[in-house]
Amino acid sequence: MRQSVKNKRGIPIPTRILISGIVLLLQLGILFVMLNTLSDRSVLIYTVSEILAIITVVYIVNRRGNPSYKMAWIMFILIVPIFGITVFMLYGGGRVLPHLKRKMRNCESHNMPLLKNDEEAQNALKYDDYPHSRQAEYLARESGYPLYKNTSVEYLSPGEVFLPRFLEELEKAERYIFLEFFIVAEGEMFDSIYAILRRKAAAGVDVRLLFDDFGSIKRQRKGFIERLRRNGIKVAVFNQIKPSFNLFMNNRNHRKIAVIDGAVAVTGGLNLADEYINAEKRFGYWMDCAVILKGEAASSFAVMFCNMWEFTTGHRLEAQNYLTEYSVQTGGYVLPYCNDPLSNKNVAAGIYMQILNSAQRYVYIISPYLIIDNTMTEMLKMAARSGIDVRIITPHVPDKWYVHPVTQYSYSELLEAGVRIFEFTPGFIHSKIFVSDDSVATVGTVNMDYRSFSLHFECGVWFAANHAVGDVKSHFDEIQEMSREIKLSRWRKTPWPIRLKRSILHLFAPFM
């Protein structure tokens, strides 16, 4: 029987996470003591460690990957050679074991071919809007999911506006409900969803829930999974936390996906936890968003879920059994996409750069984090210097004390280039949005940071020439009104201790 202790909110923390942390610390402590003991006894050991550190650094420099990420590993290894090399070998600097890559590619091999390219939609977009057709072509080629035309997009924000609409769509389910979230937390939000899931499962609807262990483990009471399963809900846990070093433990499933009967799909920044609907106050007012898709594009999210379910459980879900020929006659174009650490394709960062590169008038961005490498920084600066109105909204109230200063580290360079930066003063903003020129937008789970771009499983939806683009733009304007603009002249007067803290934490940005 799994014992538990309680956190401040009264929700038990499973002993498993405590044991895992203690065991990992013990392993690190023993390793550190052994290495120090050896170093004290022998100059040879120290010399060998330096040689190994140099060899490892040469390897890191010459491997493919983000230069900023490489630099963080290089500094770590040169400061504490053997310890740094050991951690690098364990976590691989973003490297994922080949067998996991093969496993995911195998899952995709029998599901992805079911999604057919709509050549009519592709040709129409090229005719209507050639610059944005390049973005769609990029996404389709890199992520593997096609462009759709017969799909409606409904943009919803904040969470307390989204939840009633989501419950309404769940109530309509007749065949299946697939849910995949980073955080599933017991509370008011989940209870309202669970009540519907329980009834639907009893009525014969295929209800499946997949959540990330790291994101959810502190947010559920004892017996949570067993209770769901007793009510007919199939549950899978992604990448369970274990008391041992694991190359894959650093890669989490950060996606937020709901698929209903193959006709309706949901994605965005919202998890299933009370702070997302402001039923619980954690960091002031929580601002977030989601989109509800109806029509052909829901098929792509159904395939995404089937791939991840098989990858997590080993049980194959034949996606062909869950696809529906359902279309909504509406204007515009829709293209769902996903990003994962199992390939060398950085799809999410790529589409953000494509939007910046194609903009003619403006690019407005919302992200809870702004932990970006030199390439993304230069893209933002280049757009601003070429006359594009680039605006970024980040939180004023942080959710992590050590991450917010790293977000702010980038402000000076961007402000000097003409980028306008705002901080959402009522609380924490968790939305992930790009919108440009009243014509194209993307909403999803992808933060502007190293983890989302390189280490996590993510997803989003790109849409163009759709009325929802205007809804996103209008909402950005509303949020900007609630935000404080950061002025360069005042920012330059920041006290040096604060600047020093940002600079030091920035060194570890790729690990955050």
Helix content: 40-55%
- From the spread of the alpha carbons, the general shape counts as globular
Global Rg: 23 Å
| Total of domains | 3
Report how far the terminal alpha carbons are from each other.
34 Å
**Spatial ordering of strands, largest sheet:** 11-18-17-16-12-13-14-19
CATH topology of the largest domain: Endonuclease, Chain A
Q: Please state the average pLDDT score.
A: 87
Can you count the beta strands?
A: 19
What's the level 1 CATH class of the largest domain? Alpha Beta
The H-level CATH homologous superfamily of the largest domain, spelled out, is Endonuclease Chain A
| Secondary-structure class | alpha/beta
CATH architecture of the largest domain: 2-Layer Sandwich
Q: Give the DSSP E fraction (strand runs of 2 or more residues).
A: 15-25%
Unreliable stretches (pLDDT < 50, length at least 5) are 1-13
Number of distinct helices: 20
- Sheet having the most strands: 8 strands, mixed
